[in-house]
Amino acid sequence: MMIRLFILGSLFFSIFPTNVFAVEAGTVDSGATAWMLTSTALVLLMVPGLAMFYGGLVRTKNVLGTMMHSFVSMAIIGVLWVICGYSLAFGKNVFGGFVGWDSSFFFLRGIDERITNGIPEYVLAMFQGKFAIITPALISGAIAERVYFKGYTLFIALWFLLIYCPLCHWVWASDGWLYTSGASGVIDLAGGLVIHVSAGVSALILSILIGPRKGYPKTAMHPNNLVMTMMGAGLLWVGWFGFNAGSTVQSGLETARALTMTQVSAASGALTWLIIEAVIFKKATSLGFVSGILAGLVVITPAAGVVQPIGAITLGTLSSIACYYALQLKGRLGYDDSLDCFGIHGVGSGLGVLILSFFIRDSWMATAATSAGGTWTMWNQLAIQAKGLGVTILLAVLGTTLIYFVVEKTVGFRITEEEEQEGLDKSLHREHGYGLVNSEII
């Protein structure tokens, strides 16, 4: 029955226009292809890195359930991406440009022999697929320790189809209305908007709609394993080189620039957070250090292709300061963004999307001015960046709210108080992360 449905779907969608990429005949560029294969693996490495980062931050009784939220995205989004996600994201405009479609991308059935810009299109599809996998997994940090696994899996599937794919199409497809072409589009090299702002804002909305954990904020909820969290942060830092430098889709000067800015901003963010803690608390913490790493990484994600090292240092510094105070604000406002998805990913990357306008290298601005047929200033670019940020926030808010109510009214989203008290690992998965039993699990 399912095979028949897929065949019918393929025939139905064949009426839509085809391939957004320019298909080039010729040989494979082995250097660029090797780097893109490496980048694809590095981005996938970020998923277990995220699982370790989040898993170490929750209580012992929820460690496996929390890590499963990251890992399951590899399965659900990994399959959906092949079936229809790649087409929805990178096909030609349909439905007024809200999303894309290309029948040859359906099940990736038409790209078997395609080489695009010297790179097999399978590699490009898999590279972008890893971005699609990690994005909804980020959201899980905001709702940790209190949601049904079935509700979460339905949520990320719908969120991927209704929010991620349209936004990806707007920003990165060549006919997307926010696509950067000369001076006509938003600058977002590796997903400041598509990934971090969308996930961060959705995380904030979802944490408010679902409500705080039982006992929050009065009850102390200590991390179960900061060693694992630090290891996860290290894997994320390493994987981010594929994330940003791989997004240049080449192996050359632009790749070197993006890789360098990624390293510089991450180091700057980590150092700034250490200084903040030294001034305020007279000590440094491992959790603060890894938070600074992430603050530096998320802010440079949209900007790594256009800024220079001084810009990367400045962005990393500003992001750490902004994210630090965003986390303090969370406690005052009372919403339970459990693992700070909005406070770091949403705030840090949103800041990067805007502030990059003031640090763009002169050569890029000159090219933009030529494309615009006149002058092009940082203020022109800032206006475009603000527009992209605004529509991303709007889509994330409206889409997440709608999807939440669909999930809650169908399979259910928030677990019961008894299940929350028992912990996700035992109540939902019938497992224990560390082999502990009963009263030892907190």
Describe this structure in words.
This protein has helices at residues 2-13, 30-57, 63-90, 121-139, 149-172, 192-210, 226-245, 253-281, 286-300, 309-333, 341-355, 362-372, 378-410, 417-422, 424-427, and strands at 92-94, 99-101, 115-116, 119-120. The model is unreliable at 1-25 (pLDDT under 50). Strands 1-2 form a two-stranded antiparallel ribbon. A two-stranded antiparallel sheet has the order 3-4. Helix 5 runs antiparallel to helix 6 and helix 5 (149-172) runs antiparallel to helix 13. It has 15 helices and four strands. The longest helix has 33 residues, at 378-410. It is an all-alpha fold. The chain has a single domain, classed as Ammonium transporter AmtB like domains (Ammonium transporter fold). Helices cover 65% and strands 2% of the residues. It is globular, with a radius of gyration of 21 Å.
Summarize the entry for a quick read.
It contains 15 helices and four strands. It is mainly alpha-helical. Helix 2 (30-57) packs parallel to helix 4.
- Tell me the strand order in the biggest sheet: 1-2
Report the count of strand segments. Answer: 4
The H/E string reads: HHHEEEEHHHHHHHHHHHH
Structural class: mainly alpha
The number of distinct helices, counting runs of at least 4 residues, comes to 15
Please give the structural blueprint.
Elements: H1 2-13, H2 30-57, H3 63-90, E1 92-94, E2 99-101, E3 115-116, E4 119-120, H4 121-139, H5 149-172, H6 192-210, H7 226-245, H8 253-281, H9 286-300, H10 309-333, H11 341-355, H12 362-372, H13 378-410, H14 417-422, H15 424-427
